[in-house]
């Protein structure tokens, strides 16, 4: 139903908890909502490697993008809470979103060997742009079809690190075997 329809009594009723118990865990509806949104993050981003995997780090990052897109497609309503509705509480929501993006950018940087690792600014900007792109798809109810963008998202993430030609080649060779959709032609990826 979205953030604007949440009330303390409604949350307590849905959760089956008393006002006293709710108040012992959360300061208000905003605190509950942002805690829930932060708690959703692992559901969508769990497969991102925590550190460099010497052999196959590129494949790990590519598969992570495909996994994120699959998780969004599987539950676009829940994804909408994380990617879009997080902004509803205003400044607190923007801070929550920024923390989530910064955490993902940092984890992505740690998954890339130091010699190729992007700067923190570059990683933050790239992850912020990816987040905004997913949010835009969810805002226009295209969450179930988001997997069609996975190759482009992977290219967007890897091309600044590897160069466009190497990134396109890696993506073509690293898609999950269960993904039988046609791959956009290399020129399409490079033009994205």
Class by helix and strand content? Answer: mainly alpha
| Helical segment count | 10
Largest sheet: none
Shape: elongated
Task: Tell me the span between the first and last alpha carbons.
Answer: 34 Å
Number of strands: 0
Taking all residues together, what is the mean pLDDT? 85
N-to-C series of helices and strands: HHHHHHHHHH
As a whole number of angstroms, the C-alpha radius of gyration is 18 Å
Q: How large a portion of the residues is in β-strands, by DSSP E?
A: under 5%
Low-confidence stretches: none
**Helix content range:** 55-70%
Furnish the topology, listing elements before pairings.
Elements: H1 8-15, H2 19-25, H3 29-45, H4 57-74, H5 76-83, H6 91-110, H7 120-139, H8 150-162, H9 164-174, H10 186-191
Task: Give the gist of this structure.
The protein has 192 residues and is mainly α.
What do you see in this structure?
- This protein has 192 residues and is mostly helical.
- It has helices spanning 8-15, 19-25, 29-45, 57-74, 76-83, 91-110, 120-139, 150-162, 164-174, 186-191.
- The protein contains 10 helices and no strands.
- Helix 3 (29-45) crosses helix 5 (76-83), helix 4 (57-74) crosses helix 5 and helix 4 runs antiparallel to helix 8 (150-162).
- The protein is elongated, with a radius of gyration of 18 Å.
Features:
192 residues; mainly alpha; 10 helices
């Amino acid at each position: 139903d979205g953030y604007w329809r949440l009330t303390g009594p409604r949350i307590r009723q849905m959760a089956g908890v008393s006002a006293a118990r709710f108040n012992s865990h959360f300061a208000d509806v905003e605190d509950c909502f942002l805690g829930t949104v932060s708690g959703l993050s692992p559901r969508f981003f769990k497969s991102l490697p925590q550190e460099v995997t010497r052999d196959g780090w590129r494949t790990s990052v590519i598969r992570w993008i495909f996994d994120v897109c699959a998780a969004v497609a599987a539950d676009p309503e829940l994804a909408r809470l994380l990617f879009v509705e997080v902004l509803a509480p205003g400044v607190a929501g923007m801070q929550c979103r920024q923390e989530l993006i910064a955490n993902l950018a940092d984890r992505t940087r740690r998954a890339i060997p130091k010699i190729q690792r992007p700067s923190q600014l570059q990683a933050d900007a790239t992850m912020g742009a990816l987040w905004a792109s997913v949010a835009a798809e969810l805002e226009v109810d295209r969450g179930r079809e988001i997997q069609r963008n996975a190759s482009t998202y992977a290219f967007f993430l890897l091309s600044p690190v590897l160069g466009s030609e190497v990134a396109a080649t890696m993506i073509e060779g690293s898609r999950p075997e269960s993904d039988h959709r046609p791959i956009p032609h290399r020129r399409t990826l490079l033009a994205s």
